[in-house]
């Protein structure tokens, strides 16, 4: 068995254990394999092991991978999620090549994604990114801004508001992780009351997936535990 195949099995077991620990069923939780900086060979191994949903952070790198796998036999069965910060001048590439965007944090970006979504493709699934704990970070809105942004995004024709996403500040303590994720979960449930199509709460990474699942995450974004540490040094 390859390392990636083994890692995927381990991560799936960890998700199942976390779900069972809080009386949830593992099928409620989507595993998004975060493949940023990793070569297509690593993604191909994950695909061979049954993985179908992949997350990419950098627009051009992501588009290159989407296009590579579009020509492969499994291409049509893959779900590509854009999970990185998005600048306006790159929105078209996301609208044209991805199924999901997790990082909508202003109306202007959502409008561009909707305008630029090609006719003939289903609406782009979008999540609103919440800046839940990290005041230093410029990504994401504060919760007080959510009702107005959600209403405006939900009204756009070619995107579907599916839920919320957060990247909390790194925190080793499980109880403190749980407290932050709990705030996200409350906001998510309130959003679901208002918008019936909302079904996705994207939170949890390699180091905090158990707490995220306990708090109600429906999608965990896992990179390191599947593909190993990332190397950002110049080639
Ligand atoms: C890189 C990244 C991940 C994966 O993080 P790991 O700790 O490697 O699992 C998840 N979400 C986002 C938004 C990321 O940028």
Automatic annotation (TrEMBL):
The modification N6-(pyridoxal phosphate)lysine is found at residue 36. One of its GO terms (molecular function) is pyridoxal phosphate binding. Keywords: Pyridoxal phosphate. Pfam families: Ala_racemase_N. SUPFAM superfamilies: PLP-binding barrel. Its cofactor is pyridoxal 5'-phosphate. Residues 13-230 form the Alanine racemase N-terminal domain. Belongs to the pyridoxal phosphate-binding protein YggS/PROSC family. Monomer. Pyridoxal 5'-phosphate (PLP)-binding protein, which is involved in PLP homeostasis. This is Pyridoxal phosphate homeostasis protein.
